[in-house]
Task: structure prediction
Amino acid sequence: MDSENKEEKIYPLGYEPKITPKSEDPTVRNQLLDFILKSGPTEVVDTDLFAVMSKRRSTRKFSDKPVETTKIDKIIAAADTAPTAGNFQGFEIFYVKSPEKKKLLVDACNKQPYVNAPVVLAFCKNPSRVKFDFPDYVLKKFAIQDATLAAGYSQLAAQALGLSSIWIGMFDEQKVMDVLGTDLVPSSLLCIGYPEQTKFPKPRRNLKDLVHVTW
Ligand SMILES: Cc1cc2nc3c(=O)[nH]c(=O)nc-3n(C[C@H](O)[C@H](O)[C@H](O)COP(=O)(O)O)c2cc1C
Result:
């Protein structure tokens, strides 16, 4: 028996399979991902995608109510359902749990206090995963799109689960990298929690002013 088959798999707490599959089922793209997405108790508040989109509103005041682990798992798994350039998944997620590191992130993010939120996810670009034979700048462009889209999926998932979030784009990249202990450049931070109060969505410009129909 080769050492590859003997390699011990590590699963997140609560997701250890009852029977270890001999080989991955080719019809399932990622067993753990599918398991988390379908797992309960879900207590999904909204399953209507358009209702989720239309109700989302940035929140900068979170209640102290802790976010359930099953919800955090789903938010992270949702990121992994996003499309990525060439399916190379040119991004990484840092799930910041340490209260000390969250405080350091507040400082790294222009002293925005709400960065110290119940759940803090940092989405970083990883262009080295994008194995296209394209110039470096293209790979970087793909990685920023991968990371951004993934964060967007997580943000909508959080909303669907009855949570609120704030997208953080204003930060000192190097300071965030130092806190995370990585040489990968962050693209955004997503701070999530239960909102202190539910607010109405913000207005947008007229849709017909936004769209430029081009023949
Ligand atoms: C690219 C980007 C960067 C942002 N950076 C910050 C930020 O650093 N701090 C902050 O408080 N909000 C930030 N936001 C949140 C926006 O202010 C917010 O999404 C916007 O006002 C619209 O409000 P809504 O999300 O409730 O629709 C950012 C949003 C985006 C998309």
